[in-house]
Amino acid sequence: MPNLVNRLVLEDLRREFKDVEGMLVxxxxxxxxxxxxxxxxxxxxxxxxxxxVRNSLAQVALKExxxxxxxxxxxxxxxxxxxxxxxxxxxxxLLTAPDVKKAGKVKIxxxxxxxxxxxxxxxxxxxxxxxxxxxxxxxxxxLSGPQRxxxxxxxxxxxxxxxxxxxxxxxxxxxxxxxxxx
Length: 182
Description:
Elements: H1 4-17, E1 22-27, H2 33-45, E2 49-53, H3 55-64, E3 78-83, H4 85-95, H5 98-103, E4 107-113, E5 116-118, H6 120-125, H7 132-178
Helix pairs in contact: 1-3
């Protein structure tokens, strides 16, 4: 029978993982406390929760939620970054940042996004997904682009005519100003 501490930790993990939409399982070998706290702070700023977990307890909590993850993902020092789907994307961006990768102390083992299990490469690819405001701006650009082009084309005819008339008027004024007085 598990001891009281393990039961409490497992209950906490069950509660935390209940409504999770996105998750990254990460290897954290060799991080100093200062580096770990800095990374946790950066994750928290983006709304990402992060926990260092006992491998066996994390596996049990995830299995009870219906997520069968390979045992190889839970070896060594394991941390789980989790939250809404967008939080997992922010975590992937942060954990694959050049300065974090250069140190080589953090490695994404696998991920979960909206119920789909992702391998290490797919989880790292989440870092290339644009954030919500960028996606909205791109969609808005796609939606407004054709209409803007249509307005420019429709406006080109009258604008061109106006420019031709203005040029002709300027030409006539210049011609009148240059005629010798009789």
